[in-house]
Amino acid sequence: MFRKAFENYGAIVAVFATGIVVRDIAPLLDNKWSDPAVVVVDSNLNFAIPLLGGHHGANEVARKIAELGAVPVLTTATEVHGKPSVEGIADRLGCEVFNKQSTIAVNCALLDQNVEVLEVKGPRIVVVDDDVSVLVRKKQAEKDKSSGNS
User: Fold this and answer.
1) Which band of pLDDT confidence, cut at 50, 70 and 90, is reported for residue 139?
2) Are strands 71-72 and 11-14 parallel, antiparallel or unpaired?
3) Backbone conformation region of residue 97, classed left if phi is above 0, alpha if psi is from -120 to 50, else beta
4) Could you tell me which residues are beta bridge partners of residue 96?
5) How many CA atoms lie less than 13 Å away from 90 in the CB half-sphere?
6) For range 63-71, the mean pLDDT
7) Residue 85: half-sphere exposure toward Cβ, Cα within 13 Å
8) What is d(CA 1, CA 23) in angstroms, rounded to the nearest whole number?
9) How far apart are CA 105 and CA 98, in angstroms?
10) What is the rounded CA–CA span in Å between residue 26 and residue 126?
């Protein structure tokens, strides 16, 4: 059941015990950028727990389930501290993260400081360090994927 859901959906709400879900999805896990968001909800609708993909839709799904009375159990550091995440900023701006590995350092920085979002219009050449997240507008990101530049 989970294999089919992983292949066909971007978000999964599982009304199961967390242990069952963890054991069943473990062999299916690839990476945080391609795995679907997974939210576990207990059968009494007490808690909605984003298990995978907190920054990739699971936290939002848990908040929607909270409208039915469940308590969302959010554990991503940026969410817990009321700070934005790179992934959330990218989503709000209609962008994709080009250099995905950068999000770890930038999300950590977002916990302690304001990180400026700069918009650079081209044509330009931009050189960045590993701790700089580069966001590409989704329209441009799709062009890059189709031409093999991602």
Assistant:
1) confident
2) unpaired
3) beta
4) 136
5) 24
6) 97
7) 21
8) 13
9) 14
10) 38
Other C-beta atoms closer than 10 Å to the C-beta of 6 total 18
Q: For residue 74, count other CB atoms closer than 10 A to its CB.
A: 18
Range in 21-30, 81-90, 141-150 the model is least confident about: 141-150
User: DSSP state, 17?
Assistant: -
Residue 103, token pair as written in the block: 């999000």
Question: What is the arithmetic mean of pLDDT over 103-116?
Answer: 96
Dihedral class, residue 69 (left if φ above 0, else alpha if ψ from -120 to 50, else beta): left
- Work out the mean pLDDT of the chain and round it to a whole number: 92
- Strand runs (DSSP E) across 1-150, as ranges? 11-14, 37-41, 47-52, 71-72, 95-97, 135-137
Query: Which residues are 133's β-sheet partners?
Result: none
Q: Which amino acid is at 99?
A: N
Instruction: Provide CB contacts within 8 A for 51, sequence distance 6+.
Output: 14, 18, 21, 22, 25, 38, 39, 40, 58
Q: Residue 19: exposed, middle, or buried by beta-carbon count in 10 A (0-12, 13-18, 19+)?
A: exposed
Assigned token pair, 12? 């999964």
- pTM for this predicted structure: 0.81
